[in-house]
Design brief:
39% strand, four-stranded antiparallel beta sheet, alpha+beta, 463 residues
């Protein structure tokens, strides 16, 4: 059984990734070049320094000759010390003479070769003759195969998972092609802190294959998935330099605890929302990598934030406060819409068919729905699972998938004026399921992950 815990995952649309991802550029040659330049500069400076020192010594000698008798006697004592030093050096040379060090490298013995050694097979004029070299000169089949393995086709989806395994935090990029029956790990990136949330930042305006990852330390890092063997993120939100009194001061404008949820504004692709265990929500300007607004009106951990898919300024927030708060980002923070749900909010989802209907997953296992235009009464509220509902996603319009800590995944049909109808259950019996996402190109496919390295793709059309 695969070890580890999958904390978050996301799909990447077909055609977003580069066909041939690039390798991370090794800047050691650049560093070596700059070092060598500094060394050349140091050598030049050193010579100049010696020349200056020599000039000063000659000046001191002439000055000494022009001094008074006291100075002449001082110079005389110095010359005696120098002659004494030269005699000591001569004595040392006499002591070493008996060892004949000048003839140390001369060897009068004839070279002896052991006839039992097959010297003909020690060196070959051509690698073709060497049986130990399996990849011959001019044989590009191996490199071509490696390049072909790294190729990402236009009809390939990527699945990016955040994983914690043996105290190592990483993201793994999988290639998935349902039509060709292909699914394998393409490359991975080691992280400095456990990933807690993840979202693709691709949009019609920005065509880069990048993801934002919120970690346990409160950081949000942007990673370019088209770079293999990447060591550092392309951007870290909130970390910048601020000029104060003509001095640059580093300012860490970040969360102080784990970032548990991220939401990308599809209509305004430069805006990202983040919810944290530090009980705050931040809005980020991705162009400047800085916070543009901070919501600090909560009394508990924030577990989910979600922008409305059609209204740019509408943001839903849920967490330990046992309330759903919906903000108009243009208005005052305290003027938000508040809906009581009676339990901690684990996840949120806007209904694709009804833009004003929001679905709420709770810690108690209840699934709740509200029309945000009518706060007085919920549309429905029922026990969908026996334990906490950890995630929600929609496949086809009117089809809902829920995952739970009861180790099951359920498919539902949303009805017009009644509770959802149960359609199917995927009983994994492999631990808690913690994260789920729908394929943006084939909405019948959902990927899920959780405890014990659980990672599964479910075709919801196979009822």
């Amino acid at each position: 059984m695969v070890k580890g815990f999958i904390t978050c995952l996301t799909w990447i649309k077909q055609g977003v990734a580069k066909e041939y991802p690039v390798r991370n550029i090794d800047d050691r040659n650049v560093q070596t070049s700059s070092v060598s330049k500094r060394r050349k500069s140091s050598k030049h400076t050193g010579k100049k320094g010696v020349e200056e020192t020599t000039g000063r010594n000659s000046t001191d000698d002439s000055t000494c000759s022009r001094n008074s008798k006291k100075d002449e006697s001082k110079c005389s004592r110095n010359s005696k010390d120098e002659s004494k030093s030269s005699r000591t050096s001569t004595d040392d040379d006499d002591d070493l003479a008996e060892y004949n060090l000048d003839l140390y490298d001369d060897d009068d013995d004839e070279e002896v070769i052991d006839d039992s050694i097959d010297t003909q097979n020690l060196m070959f004029n051509d690698n073709v003759d060497d049986n130990y070299i399996t990849i011959k000169d001019g044989d590009d089949s191996s490199s071509e195969a490696e390049i072909e393995d790294s190729r990402i086709k236009l009809n390939d989806n990527l699945i990016v998972i955040g994983k914690i395994k043996d105290d190592i935090s990483l993201i793994i990029v999988y290639i998935n092609n349902e039509n060709e029956g292909i699914h394998y790990a393409h490359h991975e990136i080691i992280l400095s802190s456990p990933p807690m949330s993840m979202i693709s930042l691709y949009s019609g305006i920005s065509s880069r294959n990048i993801v934002a990852i919120g970690d346990m330390n409160g950081s949000i890092n942007i990673w370019d998935l088209d770079i293999i063997d990447c060591l550092e993120p392309t951007t870290s939100l909130g970390i910048s330099s601020l000029k104060v009194k003509n001095k640059k001061k580093k300012v860490d404008d970040i969360h102080t605890d784990g970032v548990l949820s991220l939401s990308f504004n599809d209509i305004s692709p430069s805006i990202l929302a983040s919810g944290s265990a530090d009980s705050t929500v931040r809005l980020w300007d991705l162009n400047r990598s800085r916070t543009i607004h901070k919501y600090d009106v909560f009394k508990g951990v924030i577990q989910c934030v979600l922008f409305h898919p059609q209204e740019t300024h509408t943001l839903a927030v849920g967490g330990f406060e046992k309330k759903l708060k919906i903000f108009d980002c243009r208005e005052d923070d305290e003027s938000c819409l508040k809906l009581k749900v009676g339990s901690s909010v684990e996840d949120l989802l806007w209904n694709l068919n009804k833009p004003y209907e929001i679905l709420i997953a709770t810690e108690s296992g209840k699934l709740i729905s509200y029309d945000i235009r009518n706060r007085n009464k919920s549309l429905f509220e029922f026990a969908a699972h026996t334990s906490s509902i950890n995630g929600l996603t929609m496949t086809h319009p009117g089809r809902l998938v829920t995952i739970s800590a009861d180790e099951s995944c359920k498919l539902w049909k949303l009805n017009e004026s009644a509770d959802p109808t149960w359609l199917n259950t995927l009983d994994l019996s492999n631990g808690v399921i913690s994260t789920i996402a729908t394929n943006p190109d084939s909405r019948n496919l959902v990927a899920m992950g959780g405890e014990r390295g659980l990672f599964k793709i479910w075709n919801t059309d196979d009822e």
